[in-house]
C-alpha cells in the first residue's frame, strides 16, 4: 500500500491547497505503481517492493511540473486580473473564498486524509464515497443557512456588498470537496500526473473565465464564478481516471461506509478540529482586515499573500504529497529506506530552495510589486515584506508536518493549531483596534514566526534529526544568499534602473542554486530525470 497526503492547509491541503504511471499493476492491497513486473513479490496481494530511488524523484517532478505550470499561468492571470478588477472587488471575492475555506473543513470532516490508509481498495472506496456524501450534505445545509442569514454575515464582515455573493459559497464547497476526495484517491494510486494535470486545468479554466466575464460586467462575480468553474473542470478531468476503478466502487455498501466512518473517527475528532483551527488561522487576517479596514485592504493583502504562496506554498505542497506517500510506505514496510534520512533530506532541500527567494522578497518586495502591478498596488509590496518570514517557516515545515499523522500525534497538532489561532486573533484584534493595517499584519506575522519555529523544532525532534545541524544548513544558505545578493543590494542603494536590478536577479538566481545544489546527489537525479523527460518529448 502506498499512502500520500496533500495538506491545503490546509494543510494541507494547499494547498493544498495534479496521467497515471505506465506499468501499473493491481494487487489485493491497492493499486500501486510498479516500475517493472519484477517488483511484485509473493501472491494474494503480499507486496514486497524495492522501488527504484528515482521513483520518489519522478513523483516529485510530476507534481512539481504540474504545480509550476499551474502557478506560472496563475501569475499571468493574476497580473491581468489586477488590471481589470480594483482592490475592493478582489477583496470581496477573497472574503467569499475565505468563508468558503473555513466551511470546507466540514465538507469531508477530514475523512479524505484516511483514503490512503486502508489495506484494501474496497475500504478506501467506501471512504471516498463517505466523503462525497458528506460534501453533498454540507453544501445543501450551507445553502439553506445562507438563504436565511445573508445580512447578518454582511454586518459581521463590514462589507456592504458581501451578501450579494454568499449564495455562491455552497458551489465552492461542493466542487472543492469533490476535488479533495478525488485528489487523495488518485494519490493512493500514485497517479500524480493526473493530479498535476488537474491543477493546470484548474488554473487555465479559472483564469480564462475571470478575464472573459468582465467583457460583459466588471464585478466580484467574475472572480467567484471563474474559481467555481475552474474546480469543476478539474473534477471532471480527474473523474476520467477514476472511471477505471468502477469495479471497486461497485462493492461499496452503506453498511461498510458506516463501519469505516467509525473506524477512522479520529480524523473528524482530531484532524477536522486541528485543520479547522489552522484554516481559520490562515483566513482570519482576511476576515478581520475586512472588518477593521474594509475590502480594499483585503484586496492588497490578498495579492501579497497570493504572490508569496505561488512560488513557495505550492512547491511545498507538491513535495509534501510525495513525501507522505514515501514515509508512510516505509513505515508500513512496503518500501525500503530510513525515515530519518528521508525527513532530513527533504528538510535540507526545503531550506536550500526557500532561503534565496525569501531574502529576495525582503529586499525588493515593494519595488517588484510597483514595477509589475503599478503604483496603485505598492501597498501589497509593503505587506509582502511583513509576511515573507512567516511564509518561509511555513514552507520548510509544511511538507514534513504530515509526521503528526505518521506518528499518531494528531492531538499535539490540534493543541498547536488552537493555540496559534487564539494568538493570531489576539494579535489582529490589538492591531486592528490600536494601529494601522501594517501594524496588525506585523503582529500577525510575528506570532506566526514564533509558533512555526516551535513547530519546526518539534517535528525535527520527532524524526530524530539534529537541530543544530539543520540550523547550520540554514545559516550557510543565508550566508551564501547574502553574498550572492550583495551586488543587488548595492544596485538598490545607488538607485540604479530597476531593469538592471531585474537583470541582476535573473543572473544571481542560478548562481545561488548552482552553489548550494551542485554537489547534491538528489538534485543531480532530479535534474537528470528532468532532462531525460524533455529529451523524450522532443
Word description of this protein:
Its main location: membrane. This protein is mainly α and 538 residues long. The protein folds into 2 domains: 7-17 and 19-465, no CATH class; 472-538, no CATH class. Helix content is 76%, strand content 2%. It has 19 helices and 4 strands. It has helices at 53-84, 87-108, 121-148, 150-157, 169-188, 192-212, 220-242, 246-249, 254-263, 266-293, 295-331, 339-373, 378-397, 403-406, 410-434, 437-462, 467-493, 498-517, 521-537, and strands spanning 7-8, 11-12, 24-27, 30-33. It has a two-stranded antiparallel sheet. A hairpin with a 2-residue loop joins strand 1 and strand 2. The longest helix is centred in the middle third of the chain and has 37 residues, at 295-331. The radius of gyration is 23 Å and the shape is globular. The two termini are 35 Å apart. The relative contact order is 0.12.
Number of helices: 19
Oligomer: single chain
Secondary structure tally: strands = 4
User: How much helix is in the residues?
Assistant: over 70%
Number of structural domains: 2
What are its keywords?
2 domains, two-stranded antiparallel ribbon, Poly_Biosynth_Transport, transmembrane helix, membrane, transmembrane, O-antigen flippase Wzx
Describe the protein's topology.
Layout lengths: L6 E2 L2 E2 L11 E4 L2 E4 L19 H32 L2 H22 L12 H28 L1 H8 L11 H20 L3 H21 L7 H23 L3 H4 L4 H10 L2 H28 L1 H37 L7 H35 L4 H20 L5 H4 L3 H25 L2 H26 L4 H27 L4 H20 L3 H17 L1
Antiparallel strand pairs: 1-2, 3-4
Helix pairs in contact: 1-6, 1-11, 1-19, 2-3, 2-5, 2-7, 2-10, 2-11, 3-5, 3-9, 5-7, 6-7, 10-11, 10-15, 11-12, 11-13, 12-13, 12-17, 12-18, 13-16, 15-16, 17-18
Protein name: O-antigen flippase Wzx
Subcellular location: Cell membrane
GO cellular component, one term: plasma membrane
